[in-house]
């Protein structure tokens, strides 16, 4: 099973709301990723978790707060977002990070609209 | 530094005709390269990957790609396009410094005309 699941599929939130995005995989992968994808653009890396520890934060604003409670689950907590944060948020996982190449498996994404 | 350039932002083919999506890469060392496909409002699906084994890589759904070091290219081909192939295609190079970062091309939108 090479499935990464994400919930919710769609989310509309106001600029003062707090919400969370959830990502889950049961492939035994130890690396998980959050990407942001604007319309007609490639995905942009936001965060990388390796063995449940944050290893990369690509200068993402603090209104985005990732969390990796266990090896199967990845959350992205959202607070005080701006309309320009509206995008497709993709989660991915890979066997691990390292000097070998491990392909990343992507979830279907959460379409976020900030009003 | 790693990067990829997708030479066409949009390719249009007729159903049943061959598909060619072009990608050139730049890498400081022997790269790992991927092609991903994204159907509208969906996540990305891995089509195929090259990791320094055979230079001709076969993927899912009849797609294949050939790694040509002399031309720094990794073009994606398919002998006969299906309507279901209409999607956005991303050529991707992987960071081998330990972080497993992916560097995406800007994408090629494939349209298949019935």
Architecture overview:
The complex is a heterodimer of chains A (115) and B (114). By secondary structure, chain A is an all-beta fold. Chain A has strands at residues 4-7, 10-13, 18-25, 31-37, 44-50, 53-57, 64-70, 73-79, 87-94, 105-106, 110-114. In chain A, 0% of the residues lie in helices and 56% in strands. In chain A, the strands form two sheets. In chain A, strands 2, 4, 5, 6, 9, 10 and 11 form a seven-stranded mixed beta sheet that branches. Chain A has a four-stranded antiparallel beta sheet with strand order 1-3-8-7, with no helix packed on it. Chain B has 114 residues and is mostly beta strands. Chain B is built from no helices and twelve strands. Chain B has strands at 3-6, 10-14, 19-21, 23-26, 32-38, 44-50, 56-58, 64-68, 73-78, 87-94, 102-104, 108-113.
List keywords for this structure.
heterodimer; A: 115 residues; mainly beta; seven-stranded mixed beta sheet; four-stranded antiparallel beta sheet; 0% helix; B: 114 residues; Immunoglobulin-like; six-stranded mixed beta sheet
User: What do the pLDDT scores of chain A average to?
Assistant: 92
By CATH's scheme, which homologous superfamily of the domain at 1-51 and 89-99 and 108-114 in chain B applies? Immunoglobulins
Strand content of chain A: over 45%
Number of strands of chain B: 12
Element order, helices and strands of chain B?
A: EEEEEEEEEEEE
**What do we call the CATH topology of the domain at 1-51 and 89-99 and 108-114 in chain B?**
Immunoglobulin-like
Mean pLDDT of chain B: 91
Strand segment count of chain A: 11
Quaternary class = heterodimer
Query: What is the H/E order of chain A?
Result: EEEEEEEEEEE
Largest interface: A-B, 29 and 24 residues
Please bin the fraction of helical residues of chain B: under 10%
User: What count of helical segments of chain A does DSSP give?
Assistant: 0
């Amino acid at each position: 099973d090479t499935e990464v699941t994400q919930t919710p599929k769609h989310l509309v939130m106001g600029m003062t709301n707090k919400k969370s995005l959830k990502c889950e995989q049961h492939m035994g992968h130890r690396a998980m990723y959050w990407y942001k994808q604007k319309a007609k653009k490639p995905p942009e890396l936001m965060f990388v978790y390796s063995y449940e520890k944050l290893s990369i934060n690509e200068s993402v604003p603090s209104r985005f707060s990732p969390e990796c409670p266990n090896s199967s689950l990845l959350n992205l907590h959202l607070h005080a977002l701006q309309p320009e944060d509206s995008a497709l948020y993709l989660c991915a996982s890979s066997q691990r990070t390292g000097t070998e190449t491990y392909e990343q498996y992507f979830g279907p994404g959460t379409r976020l609209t900030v009003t | 530094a790693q990067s990829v350039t997708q030479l066409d932002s949009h390719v249009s083919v007729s159903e049943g005709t061959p598909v060619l999506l072009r990608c050139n890469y730049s890498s400081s060392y022997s790269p790992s390269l991927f092609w991903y496909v994204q159907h509208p409002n969906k996540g990305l699906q891995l089509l195929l990957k090259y990791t320094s084994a055979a230079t001709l890589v076969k993927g899912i759904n009849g797609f294949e790609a050939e790694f040509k070091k002399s031309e720094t290219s990794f073009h994606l081909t398919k002998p006969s396009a299906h309507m279901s192939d209409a999607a956005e295609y991303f050529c991707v190079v992987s960071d081998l410094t330990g972080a497993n970062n992916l560097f995406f091309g800007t994408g090629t939108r494939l349209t298949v005309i019935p």
